[in-house]
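User: Let's play a game. I give you a shape written as tokens, and you guess the letters that built it. Ready? Here's round one.
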């Protein structure tokens, strides 16, 4: 089962943020405290608010113990989850199987023959239609990010991920100048 929730940072009150911060362990608080802006701190906390709410809804648990792998991917001992944010949007996916989620705001991308982290096949796809080049690039990049998160890798490993491979299942949506992608392996996404 896969659940996906999204929100904007304005959907939560200062009391929501303060309560969430109080529930987090020291390692996560340290990561949040190192964020440069108040908005970045709110984005991180909002992701955890969504996670806590979804865990309560899906598993009837009030707390989540989070650890991190060697690449900094947050892990939970009883489910899989992924959180992403862009601008003022937050998205969280929770599942019984490995999952990755990414959200990106569509921004202007300059045409290149080859794009960093993209294979030649992916670069050709991006360049096929110049009228939607930025959207196509963000779509491919979002798929890579979601796959990286699902696999628990670092961004530097993105070049090795082929978004056209049959071993990944992607569900990508465009809305309000954003691209959102969920990635699973061998689990269909509804």
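Assistant: Ready! My guess for every position:
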């Amino acid at each position: 089962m896969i659940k996906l929730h999204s929100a904007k940072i304005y959907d939560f009150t200062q009391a929501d943020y303060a309560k969430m911060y109080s529930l987090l362990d020291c390692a996560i608080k340290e990561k949040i405290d190192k964020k440069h802006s108040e908005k970045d701190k709110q984005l991180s906390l909002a992701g955890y608010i969504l996670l806590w709410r979804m865990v309560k809804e899906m598993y009837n648990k009030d707390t989540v113990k989070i650890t991190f792998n060697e690449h900094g991917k947050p892990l939970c001992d009883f489910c899989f989850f992924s959180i992403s944010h862009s601008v003022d949007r937050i998205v969280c996916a929770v599942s019984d199987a490995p999952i990755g989620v990414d959200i990106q705001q569509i921004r202007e991308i300059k045409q290149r023959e080859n794009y960093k982290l993209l294979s030649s096949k992916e670069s050709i796809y991006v360049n096929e239609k110049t009228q939607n080049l930025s959207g196509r690039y963000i779509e491919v990049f979002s798929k890579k990010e979601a796959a990286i998160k699902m696999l628990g890798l670092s961004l530097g490993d993105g070049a090795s991920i082929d978004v056209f491979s049959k071993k990944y299942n992607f569900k990508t949506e465009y809305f309000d100048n954003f691209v959102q992608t969920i990635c699973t392996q061998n689990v269909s996404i509804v």
